[in-house]
């Protein structure tokens, strides 16, 4: 069943530079043109002060809890944006593993090479793709309007943040250009909207049937929420298409102020652990 009008929190973000790493890209680190859902979730968790706790798989392990973390798991997210150009940085990455140190310095207690004292560990060259002049639009919907207001107030005055507000790498700081509640209407769209879009297989609020198959784009399994298992992050995934803005004869929500469609991901209804 389609919900004709939906309330959302719109967050318009500018980043001078950003890198949204494609998983399993190493010596050449590729970037998505948009932050994946897990990156957006991380930003919201940061501003709300949601943190992982030692010895727990999740920030809160209680059942039927009304905390920010459990409410965040019910969030619906729409993401689109663009960037001016992409560049590639050449840098060195350090590996602090014992084997890497021994390969470089031969013994554990040595740090001298050719008469110069160096950092511990080893290092490898790496190319990192970086987006420049990035503008991202994030839309958040939740059945609890008070929770959306909490997110809004914390973005306005981020006194609970865990770290500097960033999206991507720790150095990819964000500038909030606009932050407000909007009402989006269901409409049929057709045109080139000149933004990249994440279009999830299961779109919240839209009875879209086979719309996903009609949309052009590269298919990805995007990370969403995660649990800590054996010291590593174990993610949940959602299938989504990366679309370049060419869309036609599709029903979805529309922001008439920005003149762009919005595709809300249903993270509860379409996840695969």
From TrEMBL:
<dbReference type="InterPro" id="IPR013422">
    <property type="entry name" value="CRISPR-assoc_prot_Cas5_N"/>
</dbReference>
<keyword id="KW-0051">Antiviral defense</keyword>
<dbReference type="Pfam" id="PF09704">
    <property type="entry name" value="Cas_Cas5d"/>
</dbReference>
<dbReference type="InterPro" id="IPR013337">
    <property type="entry name" value="CRISPR-assoc_prot_Cas5_Tneap"/>
</dbReference>
<dbReference type="GO" id="GO:0051607">
    <property type="term" value="P:defense response to virus"/>
</dbReference>
<dbReference type="GO" id="GO:0043571">
    <property type="term" value="P:maintenance of CRISPR repeat elements"/>
</dbReference>
<dbReference type="InterPro" id="IPR021124">
    <property type="entry name" value="CRISPR-assoc_prot_Cas5"/>
</dbReference>
<protein>
    <submittedName>
        <fullName>CRISPR-associated protein Cas5 family</fullName>
    </submittedName>
</protein>
